[in-house]
Amino acid sequence: MTASAPDRRATETKLTVSPAASAWTTYAPRFEALLERPLDAREVPAWLAEWNALGSELADVSAKLSVRADLNTASKDIQARKQAFISEVSPQWERAQNAMTQKLLAVPGYVPAPDVTQLYRRLKEEAALFREANVTLGVTHEEQKNRHSVLTGNQTVTLGGEELTIPQAKQLLDNPDRERREAAWRALAASNAALAPDLDAVMLDLLTTRRALARNADQANYRDLRWKELDRVDYTPADCRAFHEAVRDEVVPLVSAMTAQIAGRLGLDTLRPWDYNRNNLLDDQARAPLTPFKTGAQLEALAQTAFEGLDADLADRFAQMRVSGLLDLESRPGKMTHAYCSYFPTTNEPFVLMNVVGTAEDVRVLFHEVGHAFHGFYSGDAQPLGMNRWSPIEFVEIPSMAMEFLTLDHLGHVFTPDELARYREKQLQGVIAFLPWAAQMDAFQHWLYAEAGENVTVADLDAKWLELDRTFHPFVNWDGLDETIRAKGWQYYHIFQVPFYYIEYAMCYLAAVGVWRGAQTDPQGALNAYKASLRLGSTVSIPELYRAAGVDFRFDREYIRGLMSFVQEQMQA
């Protein structure tokens, strides 16, 4: 599918960055002036606002260059411009930010206002972690991550003589014809295998860099460094291990039973890799996949109607994105294959990038990413300081995942009643099937960064992933297949790009189910709480954010068991 010309033009205009805007000389004098200005406690709010405005301008430029590079992974000029910003501007910006933080922390008698208390605490912790050596090393780290983006963004799959993007090929895994699923799976596996050596090399470089970053910051290992960088103050690695064990004991048996039931109804003796897609389990009646739209414009239109049924203000926000060039949805060659929501703080505008191919899963992902966009809008409206917008990552997926559920009752124009029941069932199945994957991803990273030795090899990574996959996905039969394919499952976006950002998806999925459970009895009250929690941004603690949304910050065994029972009840209903 291709975007209409007006949409692409609006997007290109939105992402335009002038040479001056991406040059450090534009910002350096303003930072210097703020650093030289005498500062006492009374003047901090105004000074902080000026610092925030300056940082927001730079954040805008960084986000726009990054999005543009992801939309054009094959363009050497666009990639070079992003890398120039990373190597020339980002280090100076990081140094300036630390100098500004040190100046603020040195103000005698300053007591932060309630809405700045959390920010002040975070700034103190960031200052304690700052190391000049890591500024330069950080540039190397970003360059290494960008190698992953370019490699995967230009990856294609050859199937039946046709060249497909990764999302287009993955769509074929939902085909009710088992032979066609297998053919698509093998084509994807061949493409991944061809790319694997290059990604192995990137990961070994990243491991070296990440360990050096930890040593420079006087941390025992990279997990300890990330724990502090991610501001994880409300739970510990031991809590994460308990989560892994709870999922292994409470959820894996549910997925095993659920998939065995589907396989039995389809007359399958066993579940092969091409029979299992955690995002969209096989239809137990072998019906063709739902295809609710054909073009990106159609997806936008059906989502607009759904939001209008849910809430007028949410509908207006989405309409704003549509007319302002803040959506790029279609899959095409040379475009990064992941889906995400970025944000431009100076204008309080989110930007959603996707790779849609016409599936019901695309509908769900759009609601997910636009849920992030609503978070940007509402926190931006309520929080003048850009540093107080959005929320800690343990909360930031609730706005997106809850939106997947809150829209379920507003899709009558998209699906027939039977199709809507299928879509709803897939959504609920996805919650259960996702948790083992999340636990496996998190467990792998705990091992990699806190337990694996300095001389860990790619073979060690492969072996650990196999061990974990057999624990968390024992219901998939790999007999007779090349398990080197299975062993490369760790070559996943988050492992390369955002280390340790994954268990948060599980935390937030559990919370999103809790939000939806509340909406069963009080739809408007649940929606009001949802919107109120988004407005808080990063001004309160994680437990307070969860309470504002009407749920508890929990991911223990008992809580998981209770929510899984609720999901099963909803599936039966």
From TrEMBL:
<dbReference type="Pfam" id="PF01432">
    <property type="entry name" value="Peptidase_M3"/>
</dbReference>
<comment type="similarity">
    <text>Belongs to the peptidase M3 family.</text>
</comment>
<keyword id="KW-0479">Metal-binding</keyword>
<dbReference type="InterPro" id="IPR001567">
    <property type="entry name" value="Pept_M3A_M3B_dom"/>
</dbReference>
<protein>
    <submittedName>
        <fullName>Oligoendopeptidase F</fullName>
    </submittedName>
</protein>
<dbReference type="GO" id="GO:0006508">
    <property type="term" value="P:proteolysis"/>
</dbReference>
<dbReference type="InterPro" id="IPR045090">
    <property type="entry name" value="Pept_M3A_M3B"/>
</dbReference>
<keyword id="KW-0862">Zinc</keyword>
<feature type="domain" description="Peptidase M3A/M3B catalytic">
    <location>
        <begin position="172"/>
        <end position="563"/>
    </location>
</feature>
<dbReference type="GO" id="GO:0046872">
    <property type="term" value="F:metal ion binding"/>
</dbReference>
<keyword id="KW-0645">Protease</keyword>
<keyword id="KW-0482">Metalloprotease</keyword>
<keyword id="KW-0378">Hydrolase</keyword>
<dbReference type="GO" id="GO:0006518">
    <property type="term" value="P:peptide metabolic process"/>
</dbReference>
<dbReference type="GO" id="GO:0004222">
    <property type="term" value="F:metalloendopeptidase activity"/>
</dbReference>
